[in-house]
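### Sample
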Amino acid sequence: MHFVINGNAIELEFDPRTSLLDLLRERLHLFGAKKGCNQGACGACTVLVEGTRINSCLALAVQYQGREITTIEGLGEPGALHPLQAAFVEHDGFQCGYCTPGQICSAVGMMRELEGGVPSHVSGNVAAPRFELTPEELRERMSGNLCRCGAYNGIVEAIQETFGAPAAVPEPASSEAAQ
């Protein structure tokens, strides 16, 4: 079977029951995508297929033959990180780092969805051609990626900085405090 993984054409033979995650990790030694829950609930295995984010643990590899697959290893490299990877470092968007590759791939795919006008559960006017990435919208769109360490604030800050999302608006001062 033929794949394009991180820009490299690859021909492989394998059991057609192999998940895309197992193909990436066990056959191609691309260990960025992690096997967290192996049920599609945590997002640690998120990769991009032609720019669309998927849970690779739920996908059979044969479904994606001939398609372009990007893992965290294909987004950046040492000395030339993807801007989101650099922002994760700057904003402490990780602690143990287990979920980080999935978080980053998911955020890249999320921005493509947002730019394409795909609404989320919290999108206001679903008929709008584009949606603003408010903090609420960002958190909803990233809700399929869990962080066991709770580094969500750093993750959100990194995504906001990279993709120009508005920062959270502080609560207005009460009228008594302003006087």
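The chain has two domains: 2-75, 83-163. This sample (2Fe-2S iron-sulfur cluster binding domain-containing protein) is used throughout the tutorial notebook.
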